[in-house]
Amino acid sequence: MAIISESTQFDADSIDNEVVGIAATIGSHDSGMHRHQKSQLLFAASGCMSISVDGAKCILPPTRAAWIPAGVDHYAKMSNVVAYRSLYFAPHLCRELPTTLTVFSINPLLRELIERMAFWEWDKPQQAQQNTLALFCEELKVAPQEAMALPFPQDRRLQKWLQGVIEEQYLPQPLNQIALSVGASAKTVTRIFIKETGMPYQSWRQQWRLFSAIKYLSEGKSVADIASELEFSSDSAFVSFFRQQTGATPGKYMG
Fold it and tell me: What is the mean pLDDT of residues 3-7?
């Protein structure tokens, strides 16, 4: 087990044990792009993480967990994270789990299992891990998955615009404005987004707004400030949008 800080250098692949757990109250952290030979589960009781993989970005709200399969290039950024837990698994232990980045809703039993495994000693005998590990895998396989990934279009005409959106974190423009900025028709932009992200541009923009709202909520911003930042007509319009997207009000979702 490792209790780590923001400056700790850690390499799960350098540890021989088949299950490796770490625990921390990190606050903020940028892992940089990396990969590892073990599969990874990320979880935090509060705060927010964003995870980027090739061609997509994933937001990880508090009390959800992200599954990152072995060998996947990714980086994670964290803000206001409390009770950060990360579990690493030898690939042969995870053959029935997803082979792509996946976000799971975590029930109380899974949360307790994650907490226990994060504090396992790194030399804990494999035989002593078996029952807990088997229950963890069984619960994770049936845990509800949440659509928290935002795919990015790869068309070269959109790359300069997309880079600005990602780096500056500003709200993407309405369809007619993005069409003008990239020198393509609205129909062409729509066709590109449907082909390369699986959703029309407006749906993609709404998903961006949702991800940004979750991030702002984790930072402690008020509903009024978020509604203004994301260009909603009113606080109630933002709350209605958030409830429609998540099934809960902002307060309940983050609680």
Answer: 61
